């Protein structure tokens, strides 16, 4: 019996046997990751639209930048990690830079473009790779765990199980809200499938939740299925055209913040996802240079098209959880983003109540990295703990990362283990002090 030529091509390109996976599993993982992160197609235009940008153009730029980044991640690095515009950066762009500082979005986009150029440069020089390899193993495990708690908190919040409170910051959500019960159904259904070790449990749980939502009319049926792709003309190349605006010294602080936050946000996410998937070898992530290059190029492309910095998406953990282990997963994600440009109304049925159970379940899986941290040594336990709790409690991956980096050299010195702290960790110590200072002196903070 002759071998399938398509399968042979896939095997040669993505090394499926070596990764102990199959085409079917990778496709399922890609679909799961896409459905988990498809919300960015609607959230990003909404956030950037508040800054005055054309929502239709941002929608298209979001999809195309996600396609570019995910294809590059698939073909260059062969990792099951999807890339798309990050939520933290778009919020900073709109609410801190444009609305609080009063900087026109066109000028702010020039700042994004400049930071993207610098970002690509330090990736080419392999500075990012050098930094990531220098981070202690225990802190990398803490980052993976912290990201798990962070996305679980996002899921609890998005699903209505946790809400804001003036007196206690957060509190139990109201069970009188019908959509909250949709989240509960999804969480119970997916949890039971996971406990029974049913293949594709997370994806099946999402499908079941969506069907129940449509039947109960908690999720409205889309008014149409196919729509035309919006033009990018209102945003394409605007950042490049407004580069002369960067003569304003105030804007360079913005450029620096975009650069540093994007640097460490993606670094922390990549490490966390690599730990979850079991890619780490001798405390190093293989092919990380290629993964960082894919991220850098997509960030530059996104800036030209008209969207804020792209980043490795933590929702990739959903695809990894169902077995995604190669770039074929990321390639499927990019294909789904391409299709979504024509079927955008159909994606409206994937509500936060559908994705919330997924984020909570994946958070549980990622939190398992905590068991490998050396909690018996306080000089390790303190920075690791602050990294873990810092991410969900500040609602920012970079802040949690910063807490660990800032305390690690100090506790290691106090414990008489200063020789184990690499020079780069000391450099990061001062870089994060600068980053936190800049962020907190900006107007609107």
Observed structural traits:
membrane, 66% helix, purine nucleobase transmembrane transporter activity, two-stranded antiparallel sheet, globular, mainly alpha, Azg-like, NCS2 family permease, 445 residues, transport
In short:
The chain is mainly α.
In words, what does this structure look like?
The chain has 19 helices and four strands. It is mostly helical and 445 residues long. Strands 1-4 form a two-stranded antiparallel sheet. A two-stranded antiparallel sheet has the order 2-3. Helix 3 runs parallel beside helix 5 (87-100). The protein is globular, with a radius of gyration of 21 Å. The chain crosses the membrane at residues 27-44, 56-83, 103-127, 139-163, 175-195, 202-221, 251-271, 292-314, 346-368, 380-411, 423-442. Pfam families: Xan_ur_permease.
Q: Which regions contain 5 or more consecutive residues with pLDDT less than 50? A: none
Classify the helix fraction into a percent range: 55-70%
What pattern of helices and strands is seen along the backbone? HHHHEHHHHEEHHHHHEHHHHHH
What is the average of the pLDDT values? 88
Radius of gyration: 21 Å
Tell me the layout of helices and strands.
Elements: H1 5-14, H2 23-37, H3 40-49, H4 55-77, E1 83-85, H5 87-100, H6 105-124, H7 127-134, H8 137-158, E2 162-165, E3 169-172, H9 178-195, H10 201-215, H11 238-241, H12 249-277, H13 288-305, E4 310-312, H14 316-321, H15 327-340, H16 352-366, H17 378-394, H18 397-414, H19 423-441
Antiparallel strand pairs: 1-4, 2-3
Helix pairs in contact: 2-15, 3-4, 3-5, 4-13, 4-15, 6-12, 6-13, 8-12, 8-16, 8-17, 8-18, 9-10, 9-16, 10-16, 17-18, 18-19
Membrane topology: Multi-pass membrane protein
Protein name: NCS2 family permease
Pfam families: Xan_ur_permease
